[in-house]
TrEMBL record:
Domain of life: Eukaryota
InterPro entries: Ig-like_dom (IPR007110), Ig-like_dom_sf (IPR036179), Ig-like_fold (IPR013783), Ig_Fc_receptor (IPR050488), Ig_sub (IPR003599), Ig_sub2 (IPR003598)
GO (cellular component) term, any one: external side of plasma membrane
Positions of the Ig-like domain: 7-96, 102-195, 279-377
PROSITE patterns: IG_LIKE (PS50835)
UniProt GO BP: cell surface receptor signaling pathway; immune response
Residue spans crossing the bilayer: 376-398
Name used for this protein in its record: Ig-like domain-containing protein
């Protein structure tokens, strides 16, 4: 014998509604539990969230008017029926409702952010859509559509370049489109400007003393990174303390003018170079103001012309001051070069000076004075020879006399 449900028994309700709706539409979702119970509390849920609830007398269905204002209103809907007595509440099966919407609100995110990368690093771009169903994605680089390639990986809303190079610098955009109500909607994200750089190399540091006054001199420091994408910010330090900074925009060299006091040795200076990555430092530069004079040939040969060289350990573009101390007269001469030629007859003492620092002395004897030691030596040799000759004569005479006496 077939068993029929108890007319008073609460059954699982059935649910009816659309499987897709347009955004901002209002649709009806109905629930009904076949029972003889006079009054049933129907509750409508989206996932686990209660949307609406109402009391309905059977056998009428509970009709819920639901507005779909955003895509978050999509999901699985189900009904619960509760008779309010000891009978356990019953649930319907779920229906999935999709919310159709035109594309709206497209943005892109980058990793890293901001998108400033060094060569050979990884770039990831993601395209996010605030609203839009069944969307398609297209990527553009400098207004030209990008297609997947071995170096550029595109998977709908994501773009990945594992090893960027300088050619990847530029503007990236994401274009999203979809169909809605028989119309095509398209929207493009704001451009993401990606910059690929070569990190700055360790800078080279040099110094030039440009001009002087009574109490101090001005030193121009040059910092140059041979590699690295411009602009590069150079920072000068003296004994680890910040002195000044310079941004090299169109040329690699950064120049900083620093006043320093007169001293045999200045402090240690270093340059730091930064262009968005790990800072790089130069070797320490210790400026020694000592002046050294040398001659060519060394030592000078009396009676012959020679060349004097005046040198410093730093870059110096002149002037060089030459000091000549001759018997009975003194003179000075300025040159832009660090060499000067001296005639054979110009005997005396010589030294040079740079930036108020004096070099060592070089003394050039006159040609006559240079022969004096030779004359003395010759005289001594002649005297010795004369003594030896006289001694030999005396010996011979004595020897003859001895033989005569014997015979």
């Amino acid at each position: 014998m077939d068993k029929y449900p108890d007319p008073g028994q609460l059954l699982n309700p059935t649910i009816h509604g659309p499987d897709r709706v347009n955004i901002n539409d209002t649709e009806t979702i109905s629930c009904n539990a076949s029972t003889e119970t006079r009054l049933i509390m129907y509750s409508l849920f989206r996932e686990t969230t209660l949307i609406q609830a109402k009391n309905v007398s059977t056998p009428n269905a509970a009709n819920f008017s639901v507005s779909f204002h955003s895509e978050s209103d999509a999901g699985a809907y189900k009904c619960k029926a509760d008779s309010g007595d000891v009978t356990r509440a019953k649930y319907s099966e779920s229906i999935n409702i999709a919310v159709l919407a035109p594309v709206l609100g497209v943005t892109t995110n980058s990793t890293p952010y901001p998108p400033v990368l060094k060569v050979q690093s990884k770039l990831s771009l993601s395209c996010f859509v605030k609203q839009g169903s069944n969307v398609t994605f297209q990527w553009y680089f400098d207004k030209q559509q990008l297609l997947p390639s071995p170096s550029v990986k595109i998977n709908q809303s994501s773009l990945v370049i594992d090893h960027v190079n300088l050619n990847n610098t530029g503007s990236y955009e994401c274009k999203v489109s979809n169909q809605f109500n028989m119309k095509t909607f398209r929207i493009t994200s704001n451009p993401t400007q990606v910059t690929v750089k070569v990190p700055a190399s360790h800078p080279e540091i040099s110094a030039t003393i440009t001009h002087m006054d009574k109490e101090q001199m001005f030193t121009s420091f040059s910092c140059v990174s041979r590699e690295g994408t411009l602009p590069i910010i150079y920072t000068l330090y003296r004994n680890g303390t910040f002195v000044n900074s310079y941004t090299a925009q169109s040329r690699r060299e950064g120049q900083l003018l620093v006043p320093v006091k007169y001293s045999d040795k200045l402090d240690n200076f270093k340059c730091k170079a930064v262009n968005g990555f790990q800072p790089k430092y130069s070797n320490a530069l210790a400026i020694d103001l000592a002046v050294q004079m040398t001659s060519d040939p060394d030592p000078p040969i009396p009676g012959h012309p020679f060349t004097l060289n005046c040198s410093v350990s730093y870059e110096h573009k002149g002037p060089y001051t030459w000091h000549f101390v001759h018997p009975g007269k003194n003179s000075t001469q300025n040159t832009n070069g660090n060499q000067i030629s001296v005639a054979a007859t110009d005997a005396g003492r010589y030294y040079c000076s740079v930036n108020k620092q004096i070099s060592n002395w070089i003394e050039i004897p006159s040609q006559d004075s240079s022969l004096q030691p030779v004359t003395i030596a010759v005289s001594i040799a002649a005297t010795v020879l004369l003594i030896l000759t006289i001694g030999l004569i005396c010996y011979c005479v004595a020897n003859k006399a001895h033989r005569f006496n014997v015979s």
